[in-house]
């Protein structure tokens, strides 16, 4: 069967071969092929046509050529040449279409992976691999910008033979990749190392030379108006990249830019998620701290309302902060300790030989009073301190020991609020104590002011406070500096249960049931431990409640007498000074004048020469004016005593041994001795 190469009707078993490279209907075919010198259209057999079609779809060349395939056909040579040109053209078109189909298939696969794959690094690696395979290059790599330096860094590479290519940093303005990024357009170089149109960098060129790269082409990876990187294909031999290859590489670059943009967005999302998680954790922590702080504040407020103590505050803080809390009063005496040690000690902190706040605590409290905040202890001490302040008055301190976990700002604020609570508790306790002191002071004043039998209402008032007036046998007078009087009065209330203390006519008075000597020692011991200042304590004689006023007056006069003698820090009873109280008033001037008038020459002689005539005189009086007994009592020779007595006679006159002068001299000598014992 043959096919005619010419125009014919569609219903005939003939075919014509177009020579333009496009498929057209027979109506558009050119006129029939005719050979030279012939006027008749040429005919081919069906086998010849099929052979031509097979040669068009063959992967290799036609081998024998069209002339060889159609040797059995009776066709002129010019017709065979025309057919061979047309076959080659159509074959090229088919090859390009097949390659285009393969490229589109690769792009579609890449697009599908962009939609399905969630790992940016894997996507980028596959994109570079496809670009490497489809373009048939030796090397392909992608470089992205590193912020904020603006340096291009190679992240993925396929076909590299040296490890140095990965991680290469291309500085701004250097290399082909940076030129592509800055121009936002594709750039190719047939001989890169000799290309003077590109700014070279020694380090980058060393890596390129190590890879043996000769020709390169790069395309930008765009994300909107921003260049996020560059996709580069390179050969180790001279190669001129075609426009179609650049277009294909640009398509992959677009996909790669999507990957980088996705990776950046994912990184930002991860960072944002981490920041949000951290913020949520911080918010949770702060909320928990606020709730804990609010709960602690509620407990502390409740402690104030129910009349709690400093120990309760220390226990609450210690339980919440998980560390030891110590609360001190204004003198540095521990009031409470969450460790349970303050109640047992209850003594002022010591700093060398002085009592009160140690130097480190004093320094911290000064700063805390100024700022109202917790202040770390320095000078070798550890922990925190916050001042307990009411107005301008320092009322104490709260000490916080170090713990395993550092205190948060909320914990510090809790301690600062606790200092306010302690101040409120202290003010409340002081107000109660002031009221109690006032009531007890009034009771003491009423008892000491009543010269007759105490009234029935005094008995009832005393019993309402647990005091039995009929058991208060001994009045004790306390003489202290005015600035310590209030503290002494407050400390006196807690000396013994059932005792009564108050201020009467400017003097601190304590009424006790103990004997005078024991009562005086007890009062001095307790007050000295609290005050740490000079104390003159004098106990009056024991007796009935009806005579309290008289016995108080006697004790006060005795205290004044001792004060006139210069003894301001001692303990005494009125029994030892009764004769002198009966003879003299309590004025220091009267006593001094009497002593000077009676024994002045003798005292002056002792002072000037360092002798002991006054002691000899006292011994002579106590020995009933017997020189021998005086010498024996003083441990001296009798002649020594006689010589001293002669000296006294010279100083005082011949009549000093008479009964009246000797009495006066004995009294003056005793008073002088009392004044010397401080």
Summarize the structure.
53% of the residues lie in helices and 15% in strands.
Question: How would you characterize the overall build of this protein?
Answer:
This protein has five domains: 97 residues, no CATH class; 149 residues, 2-Layer Sandwich (Beta-Lactamase), CATH 3.30.450; 118 residues, GAF domain (Beta-Lactamase, 2-Layer Sandwich), CATH 3.30.450.40; 131 residues, Alpha-Beta Plaits; 89 residues, no CATH class. The protein has 21 helices and 20 strands. It has 678 residues and is α+β, with helices and mostly antiparallel strands.
Low-confidence stretches: 1-32, 34-39, 342-355
Known CATH architecture of the largest domain: 2-Layer Sandwich
Shape: rod-shaped
Radius of gyration: 60 Å
In CATH terms, the superfamily of the largest domain is GAF domain
Task: Measure the end-to-end span.
Answer: 157 Å
What is the averaged pLDDT score? 78
Number of beta strands = 20
Number of helices: 21
Strand content: 5-15%
- Provide the structure class: alpha+beta
Helicity, in percent? 40-55%
Order of strands across the main sheet: 5-4-3-8-7-6
Number of structural domains = 5
Instruction: Please write the CATH class name of the largest domain.
Output: Alpha Beta
């Amino acid at each position: 069967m043959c096919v005619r190469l010419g125009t014919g009707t569609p219903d005939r078993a003939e075919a014509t071969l177009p020579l333009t490279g496009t498929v057209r209907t027979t109506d558009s075919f050119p006129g029939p092929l005719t050979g030279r010198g012939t006027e008749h259209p040429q005919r081919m057999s069906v086998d010849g046509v099929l052979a031509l079609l097979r040669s068009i779809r063959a992967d290799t060349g036609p081998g024998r050529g069209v002339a060889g395939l159609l040797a059995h056909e009776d066709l002129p040579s010019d017709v065979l040449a025309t057919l061979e040109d047309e076959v080659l053209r159509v074959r090229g078109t088919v090859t390009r279409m097949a390659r285009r189909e393969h490229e589109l298939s690769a792009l579609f696969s890449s697009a599908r992976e962009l939609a399905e794959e969630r790992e940016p690094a894997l996507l980028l690696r596959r994109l570079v691999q496809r670009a490497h395979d489809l373009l048939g290059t030796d090397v392909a790599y992608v470089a992205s910008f590193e912020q904020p330096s603006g340096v291009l860094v190679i992240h993925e590479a396929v076909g590299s033979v040296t490890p140095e290519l990965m991680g290469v940093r291309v500085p701004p303005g250097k290399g082909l990749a940076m030129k592509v990024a800055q121009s936002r357009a594709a750039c190719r170089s047939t001989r890169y190392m000799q290309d003077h149109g590109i700014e070279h960098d020694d380090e980058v060129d060393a890596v390129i030379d190590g890879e043996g790269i000769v020709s390169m082409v790069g395309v930008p990876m765009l994300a909107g108006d921003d260049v996020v990187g560059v996709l580069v294909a390179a050969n180790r031999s001279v190669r001129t990249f075609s426009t179609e290859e650049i277009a294909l590489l640009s398509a992959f670059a677009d996909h790669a830019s999507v990957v980088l943009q996705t990776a950046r967005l994912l990184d930002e999302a991860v960072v944002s998620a981490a920041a949000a998680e951290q913020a949520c954790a911080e918010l949770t922590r702060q909320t928990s701290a606020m709730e804990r702080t609010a709960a602690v504040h509620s407990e502390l407020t409740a402690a104030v309302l129910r009349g709690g103590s400093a120990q309760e505050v220390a226990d609450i803080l210690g339980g919440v902060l998980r560390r030891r809390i110590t609360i001190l009063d204004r003198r540095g005496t521990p009031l409470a300790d969450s460790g349970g040690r303050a109640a047992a000690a209850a003594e002022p902190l010591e700093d060398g030989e002085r009592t009160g706040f140690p130097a480190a605590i004093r320094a911290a409290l000064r700063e805390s009073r100024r700022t109202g905040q917790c202040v770390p202890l320095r000078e070798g001490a550890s922990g925190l301190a916050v001042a307990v302040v009411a107005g301008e008055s320092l009322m104490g301190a709260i000490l916080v020991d170090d713990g395993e976990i550092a205190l948060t700002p909320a914990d510090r604020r809790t301690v600062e609020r606790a200092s306010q609570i302690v101040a409120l508790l202290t003010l409340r306790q002081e107000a109660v104590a002031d009221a109690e002191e006032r009531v007890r002071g009034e009771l003491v004043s009423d008892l000491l002011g009543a010269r007759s039998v105490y009234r029935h209402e005094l008995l009832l008032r005393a019993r309402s406070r647990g005091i039995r007036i009929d058991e208060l046998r001994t009045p004790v007078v306390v003489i202290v500096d005015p600035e310590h009087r209030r503290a002494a009065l407050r400390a006196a209330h807690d000396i013994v249960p059932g005792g009564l203390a108050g201020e009467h006519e400017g003097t601190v008075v304590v009424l006790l049931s103990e004997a005078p000597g024991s009562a005086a020692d007890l009062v001095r011991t307790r007050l000295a431990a609290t005050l740490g200042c000079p104390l003159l304590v004098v106990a009056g004689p024991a007796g009935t409640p009806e005579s309290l006023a008289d016995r108080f007056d006697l004790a006060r006069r005795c205290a004044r007498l001792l004060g006139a003698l210069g003894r301001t820090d001692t303990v005494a009873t009125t029994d030892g000074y009764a004769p002198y109280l009966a003879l003299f008033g309590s004025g220091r001037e009267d006593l001094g004048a009497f002593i000077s008038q009676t024994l002045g020459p003798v005292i002056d002689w002792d002072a000037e020469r360092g002798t002991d005539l006054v002691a000899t005189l006292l011994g002579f009086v106590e020995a009933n004016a017997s020189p021998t007994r005086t010498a024996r009592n003083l441990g001296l020779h009798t002649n020594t005593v006689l010589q001293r007595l002669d000296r006294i006679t010279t100083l005082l006159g011949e009549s000093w041994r008479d009964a009246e002068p000797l009495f006066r001299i004995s009294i003056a000598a005793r008073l002088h001795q009392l004044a010397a014992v401080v």
